Structure formats: structure tokens, C-alpha cells
Amino acid sequence: MEAIQSWVAEHKLKAIGAIWVSGIGASLAYSRARTPLKPSLRLIHARMHAQALTLAVLSGAAAYHYYEKHEADRQKEN
């Protein structure tokens, strides 16, 4: 787990891009199997799903960064 955390810490943009691309791929695969939409609509929906996933990941990363910084500041005080 530490190896993954260190890689993500060093390659933040690549990790976010990979999550975005996998979100698009997963959404396209799901919509192709489940709904009879036109390809253009599938792509629009996939992009929206990937954006929502990316925002959720960025929010989680911001919360984690805040928590980590808060804990470091707290340890310095003690």
C-alpha cells in the first residue's frame, strides 16, 4: 500500500488522468451493454461520469492533504 501511495504522491497528474480515462472506459462499456444510445450520447455521458469521478477523487485528495497537514502541524506542537 505504501508503494501505491508514494507513486501517487510523485505522479499526481498521471494518477488523476488514469482515473479519468478508466472512468470513461467503464462508462462506455456499461452504456454499450445496457442502453441503446447513439455513440455521440454515450460519449457525452461517459465524459460526464468521468468528470464526476475526477471531482470526487480530487475532493478526496484535498481532504487527505488537509488531514495530513493538520496531523503534521499537530505533531510539531507536541
Percent helix range: over 70%
The total of beta strands comes to 0
> What's the average pLDDT?
87
Order of helices and strands: HHH
Total domain count: 1
| Strand proportion | under 5%
What is the end-to-end distance?
28 Å
Provide a count of the helices. 3
Radius of gyration: 17 Å
Main beta-sheet strand count, sense and barrel state: none
- Anisotropy-based shape: elongated
Poorly predicted runs: none
3D structure, described in words:
- The chain has 78 residues and is mainly α.
- Helices cover 91% and strands 0% of the residues.
- The chain is built from three helices and no strands.
- The protein has helices at residues 2-10, 12-34, 39-77.
- Helix 2 runs antiparallel to helix 3 (39-77).
Quick description:
This protein is mostly helical. The chain has 3 helices and no strands.
Explain the layout of strands and helices.
Layout: H1 2-10, H2 12-34, H3 39-77
Helix pairs in contact: 2-3
Primary descriptors:
elongated; 3 helices; 91% helix; mainly alpha
